[in-house]
Design goal:
With 57 residues, this protein is mainly α. The chain has one domain. 47% of the residues lie in helices and 7% in strands. Strands 1-2 form a two-stranded antiparallel ribbon. The longest helix is centred in the middle third of the chain and has 10 residues.
Length: 57
């Protein structure tokens, strides 16, 4: 099991959706994640947060 933060592309593969769906959820605040450097930094998502999002929590 992955325990380190993952990229949106990795998260999309694990969730079985398109990478744009991950970005949309991040920007809407539905999926927790963080940007390494703002404003155009790379997003990182913890596996626990992705799991909660997939379950609809």
């Amino acid at each position: 099991m992955i325990t380190t933060p993952m990229s949106p592309a990795q998260a999309a593969r694990m969730a079985g959706c398109h990478q744009n769906s991950i970005y949309a959820a991040l920007l809407a605040g539905e999926l927790r994640g963080y940007q390494r450097t703002a404003p155009k930094g790379r997003w990182r998502i913890f596996p626990e947060d992705l799991s909660r999002w997939i379950k609809g929590e």
